[in-house]
Amino acid sequence: MPNRLAHETSPYLLQHADNPVDWWPWSDGAFEEARRRDVPVVLSVGYSSWHWWQ
User: Fold this and answer.
1) 24 φ/ψ angles, rounded to the nearest 5 degrees
2) What is the pTM of this model?
3) Alpha-carbon distance 26 to 4, whole Å?
4) Tell me: the pLDDT tens digits for 36-46?
5) Host domain of residue 20
């Protein structure tokens, strides 16, 4: 699976670059591929959390 996030500048996208998910950065190509494959686009809004344990 190609790693499309490896060269992004966003820290959020980079932390997901090694996930076993076929992530695409926001681009016309991502939407064109979804149309070609007739699949939905799942959008990540960039949520990240930090947990504090003592």
Assistant:
1) -125, 140
2) 0.66
3) 11
4) 999 999 887 77
5) 1-47
